[in-house]
Amino acid sequence: MERKELPNSTLILVFGILSIVGCCCYGILGIVFGIIALVMSNRAMEIYSANPELYTGYQNVKTGRILAIIGLVLSALSFISIVISFIFYGGLEGIYDMQEEILREYGG
Length: 108
Known about the structure:
By secondary structure, the protein is mainly alpha-helical.
């Protein structure tokens, strides 16, 4: 019996990596890629657990799932910190005012 690759195993790994990288983009991209990777990995794990002898690439699925969880946590923290800074500094206008004040104070 010939073993075949789990569906989307490489894509799950790529999305897991993108979820970590996406945490630098205000957290939104990381959250999106992390959720997609988790949903896809759950489906792939169900397929693998039904017939493990038929499939390869399970290591990619496990690694992608771990990376997606890490990326989701980092992205959530990034997103929450941005929301909190908007609340405390009065939105973009407050942040720009604070930057101008710092530049005037330190002569930048």
